[in-house]
Amino acid sequence: MRRGGERAAAPSRVVRLMLRWYVAETKSQQERRAQKELINQAFSTLLLVVMDRVIIRGAVVDRPQLIWPGYLLVAFDCETDPWRAVSSTRGVKRLLGPIEAPTPLRPGFVEQYAFVIPFVNDLTKLQRGDPVTIDAHKLADRKAWFHRMDGKLRCKILLDNLSTGPVVSVPMVQVSRVVGSQARSVR
After folding, report:
1. For residue range 125-171, what is the model confidence (pLDDT) as tens digits?
2. What's the predicted TM-score (pTM) here?
3. N or C of the chain: less Cβ packing under 10 Å?
């Protein structure tokens, strides 16, 4: 106590969380169960998903598709959080890395995918023959048309307006949809 009955202010403690993202391998088809259990334990988790168009009973349906089936991203501070609990969580096989401590992902890795996925989800709605532009340096000035998806993060692009022209496979992040008056000039 100070003079006059005032209390001395408690020294402020600065708590710095060093949250890093780690990869947890999940049991077969149990990614969502593992995510739910880890959230219940107050861990931050992330399942990277893209929307995939599928035909079910003759109807085209957008369905979420995991980018990395069998894996889940978990954020924690290796020094302060009880990270060993992650490996014993229902649905989780193990954390990737040596037994002593898991190996974190490089900084910016998760943010890179969080940036890419909304664009990929939008571009998966392209129809065969839709005009697109390619942002790759060698193909930037060529006329191009969407041909089909090539996996989850790549697509096939037709470079000439003839159906027999060269088809190239490019990452979805290098493809942009052509809209408005630009679309008429490409066709």
Report:
1. 778 888 888 876 577 777 888 888 776 667 788 886 656 678 888 77
2. 0.56
3. N
